[in-house]
Write a structure and sequence with these properties.
Layout (H helix, E strand, L loop, with lengths): L10 E5 L2 E4 L1 H4 L4 E4 L2 E6 L5 H6 L7 E4 L5 H8 L4 E5 L5 E8 L1 H7 L9 E3 L6 E5 L5 E7 L7 E4 L1 E3 L4 E5 L8 E10 L4 E7 L14 E2 L28 E5 L1 H5 L22 H12 L3 E4 L31 H9 L29 H15 L3 E6 L15 H4 L27 H18 L3 E4 L7 H12 L14 E4 L18 H4 L5 E4 H8 L12 H5 L5 H11 L7 E3 L5 E3 L4 E2 L2 E2 L9 E4 L8 H8 L6 H16 L4 E5 L18 H5 L18 H4 L3 H9 L7 H20 L8 H7 E2 L11 E7 L7 E9 L5 E3 L9 E2 L15 E3 L2 E4 L3 E8 L2
Parallel strand pairs: 1-7, 17-18, 17-28, 18-19, 19-20, 20-21, 21-22, 22-27, 27-28
Antiparallel strand pairs: 1-2, 2-5, 3-4, 3-6, 4-5, 6-7, 8-9, 9-13, 10-11, 10-14, 12-13, 14-15, 14-16, 23-24, 25-26, 29-30, 30-31, 31-36, 32-35, 33-36, 34-35
């Protein structure tokens, strides 16, 4: 058998009492052995508790395992384990490996309470690693990564399967690895492998070795770290979040020294162009900055000198040329760019974002970034990727699977590793993977003062795992840990797909399942109604804000309104047919448009790092003849549907500046050229930098080429500046009244209405009324009119418009056209492709 393949493992060691086998396997033999142990068929199948724990095994046949002492069972699990079956003639007709995760969780249940990694908070400093199936584990201790290691024995705790070695204080600052001898199913033999610590707190350059550091060491903290005040807490329904890659943020900021561009340190330079802009957004009402993955990932060399760069002058090439992407693709995988969704070590800052990636310096740089963002008025969200690893097996990027083969990853029925997440998928349904997730998040919260966590592909996590994270964060207090864990917001991608879909293996952390937990999920319903189509469909399909205009089907209005109401399942309103309907009753591709219980559980957005950024989506959807100013106004309209909605709002940083990625729909490895944010509007917005990389975009090149070559689709500097200021106006409007971001579903139901709903509603125009009576001391009524049509609209209000006036933020709007909006006797007059907000003074 090839060493790159695992032996099929159809048998599942559910717990110490039971082996489960698929019925077709059972039909091939009459008797079965686990090693030398006879297996006894259990006619009733799995016990109820087992079926609840492993619902995907309910149809399997169950076999009882002879009772064994803990020590004997532990020894059995440290060797190669096979189930064999014989027919009536005694011939072997079944021979299969065994999946061990269930029995390991059963036998080593006490490991859930073990302290792993470097343990310094008691009187017995030590390194501990969970490796219950290993035959031996030794500690390799290095003075420098280039030195030969000193080998130290590690002792095994038979109760937990944890191996530990005492640590001397003088060893702090040294490097280490674990030397593990273990039977590995990929090699089909016992292997000895040297592996880093999955609980690493610091790493050598390029993650070759783990590093012993004390995160409480004052030398690793910026001045005032322990006493610095956070920006005021923000309720989830009031949050406005901008998302950015650390590298994208400043790699093209020429106001910074070259060595600091694309690094943590760039955020600490308040006078840079990038930070001046970010601070202006915070001053207007942006509350959080969401950083794409910043934990150690595998795809980028840490040192700048080791990162390949493009030699040609790409700016000199034609805007619709394929040559730029060819140059970028030629060095992809060796350059300095990747989004970072290929995690290697979950709890150490990424080295390539550090000015100095060697040793513990990156810890100080990361903390300095957090402190600087807090000082700028922003809380910090970290994008975390616990649902998969870069590699499994014996690959050099594999850590978990070299320590406990076959445990930390989710296995398919034949024992192969699931990869529906794009990479080897982890199994947070297993006790110790769940523990790793919880321990890692708590470390980031406690030692790096992270204010929120966005879980990548959260639907591949059990709901119970995310709730356990929530409980553990809630236990952090400002008095003891220096962190108020209850103020940390959790949200993620609650998508339902893959081998876990429809709760096949556990109750997933999906959109519908997370309702009522206070944990947020991205609202794709509003996204698709506003943008049009679907991320994987025809890119030219328009939506409410991207070209449907006066042809908008009123059912799309219903979907947008549910989003404006915070995606609430129970929100009642008059639908397009004139009937009262709830958010859950509005259809979204066979699912409910409204799914949240509370408004803070919906994260409303119209673009993110995935798929085309908003400007590029509009480029595909709008007629090529659409004037640049109208493109900008529609961009603002789309963003307004996020900013002025109930629930949390989310935007890809740069969309407020008409940012483009030259029509790239998946720029994760497209280099700085396609991803950089251009802070100087004289240099354009990133549109027309060449055809996007062929790997994910070549099928759209016939559409993209003419668009990229059209000079009018690159907006002039004044439009970029106007759009940014219009976004700031929207943020200030949201901040100006508590009716935006209502805390409960009851408050949303009581205060939010769409008075013109029904079959007579003007297609492409939505009027939203918010009642501030008894809540807002300044305005008793706020009315927003979203006009996505190409014509001025006049919208009458029940009860008239007396006393309404344009919001003070808009009377001198950056867009001169919007200043013409007025509350007239006939109704609210709003110019084409614009959003206007009117207010009525409180009495």
């Amino acid at each position: 058998m090839s060493t790159s393949q695992r032996e099929p493992s159809w048998a599942v060691f559910v717990d110490r009492t039971t082996i489960a086998l698929p019925a077709p396997i059972v039909d091939r033999a009459g008797t079965f052995l686990l090693g030398d142990l006879p297996l006894t068929p259990r006619p009733g199948g799995l016990f109820q508790a087992q079926s609840r724990r492993f619902p995907h095994l309910r149809a399997h046949k169950a076999f009882s395992v002879r009772e064994m002492a803990d020590a004997a069972l532990g020894e059995l699990l440290r060797d190669r384990l096979l189930v064999t079956g014989r027919d009536s003639d005694g011939e072997i007709t079944v021979r299969t490996g065994v999946q061990l995760a269930g029995v390991l969780d059963d036998l080593y249940a006490d490991a859930a309470d073990a302290c792993l990694g470097l343990v310094l908070d008691d009187d017995r400093p030590r390194l501990s690693v969970w490796a219950p199936t290993a035959r031996t584990v030794e500690l390799e201790l290095f003075r420098t990564p280039a030195d030969e290691p000193k080998l130290l024995p590690m002792l095994r705790d038979d109760l937990t399967g944890v191996w530990s070695a005492a640590i001397k204080p003088k060893w702090m600052g040294r490097y280490y690895r674990y030397r593990v001898q273990v039977w590995h199913p990929q090699a089909q033999r016992v292997v000895t492998t040297s592996v880093t610590d999955p609980y690493s707190l610091a790493l050598a350059t390029d993650s070759t070795h783990s590093l012993l550091v004390d995160l409480d060491d004052p030398e690793l903290a910026p001045p005032g770290w322990s006493t610095a005040a956070k920006p005021p807490p923000v309720a989830p329904a009031r949050m406005q979040i901008a998302e950015v890659s650390i590298r994208d943020f400043s790699v093209f900021d020429h106001s910074l020294p070259p060595a600091e561009r694309g690094t943590y340190t760039a955020f600490t330079r308040p006078d840079s162009a990038s930070m001046r802009h970010l601070r202006s957004l915070a001053d207007a009402g942006l509350t959080h900055l969401h950083l794409l993955p910043a934990a150690d990932f595998a795809s980028v060399p840490d040192r700048r000198r080791d990162q390949a760069t493009v030699a040609r002058d790409l700016a000199a090439l034609p805007p619709g040329s394929p040559e730029q992407q060819a140059e970028v693709a030629a060095i992809a995988g060796r350059d300095g760019y990747n989004w970072g969704y290929d995690p290697w070590h979950y709890t150490t800052p990424e080295g390539s974002y550090a000015v100095d990636p060697a040793g513990p310096a990156r810890i100080l740089e990361f903390r300095s970034m957090v402190a600087a963002l807090n000082a700028a008025g922003l809380r910090v969200v970290l994008d975390v990727v616990y649902n998969h690893t870069r590699a499994a097996g014996l690959d050099r990027f594999s850590v978990l699977d070299r320590l406990v083969p076959g445990y930390y990853h989710r296995l398919l029925p034949d024992g192969s590793v699931a990869d529906s997440t794009c990479c080897p998928g982890t199994a947070p349904e297993h006790m110790m993977m769940s523990k790793l997730v919880v321990d890692s998040v708590v470390t980031w919260a406690r030692h790096y003062k992270i204010d929120g966590f966005r879980f990548d592909l959260m639907g591949h996590h059990p709901r119970a795992n995310i709730l356990e994270v929530r409980v553990n964060l809630d236990h952090l207090t400002a008095d003891v840990e220096g962190v108020d864990g209850k103020q940390i917001y959790l949200y993620g991608e609650g998508w339902n797909f893959g081998e876990v879909a429809d709760d096949a293996r556990f109750a997933q952390a999906t959109q519908l399942n997370m309702a009522g937990t206070g944990i947020g999920t991205f609202n794709d319903r509003l996204r698709d109604a506003v943008r049009g189509g679907h991320p994987f469909g025809d890119p030219t399909t328009p939506g409410f804000a991207t070209g449907l205009g006066s042809s908008t089907p009123l059912v799309v209005h219903d979907q947008v309104k549910v989003g404006l109401a915070g995606g609430l399942a129970a929100y009642r309103f008059v639908n397009h047919a004139g009937h009262e309907q709830t958010g859950a009753q509005v259809d979204y591709n066979g699912a409910p448009s409204g799914y949240a219980t509370n408004p803070g559980e919906a994260v409303n957005y119209v673009d993110a790092h995935d798929n085309e950024i908003l400007y590029d989506a509009m480029a595909f959807k709008l007629p090529i003849t659409t004037p640049p100013a109208e493109r900008a106004r529609l961009q603002v309209l789309a963003l307004a549907l996020v900013v002025l909605s109930q629930g949390a709002g989310f935007v890809a940083l740069g969309s407020e500046r008409l940012r483009s990625k030259s029509l790239d729909r998946n720029s994760y490895d497209s280099g700085d050229w396609f991803n950089q944010i251009r802070w100087d509007p004289q240099l354009g917005n990133g549109f027309g930098l060449g055809l996007p990389p062929a790997a994910d975009n070549e099928d759209r090149w016939p559409l993209a080429g003419p668009l990229l070559a059209h000079p009018a689709l690159t907006p002039p500097p004044e439009l970029i500046e106007m759009t940014a200021e219009r976004y700031r106006e929207l943020l200030r409007i949201r901040r100006s009244s508590p009716v935006f971001g209502l805390p409960t579903a009851d408050e949303v139901q009581r205060r939010l209405t769409f008075p013109l709903g029904g079959p007579g509603e003007t297609p492409g125009v939505i009027v939203m009324c918010l009642d501030g009576t008894g809540l807002d001391p300044v305005w008793s009524r706020v009315v927003a009119v979203f006009n996505a049509t190409g014509d001025e609209t006049v919208q009458p209000l029940p009860g008239g418009t007396a006393g309404l006036r344009l919001h003070p933020e808009l009377t001198d709007s950056a867009d001169p056209l919007l200043r013409t909006a007025v509350a007239a006797e006939a109704g609210l007059r709003v110019p084409a492709r614009s959003v206007a907000v009117f207010v009525l003074d409180a009495t």
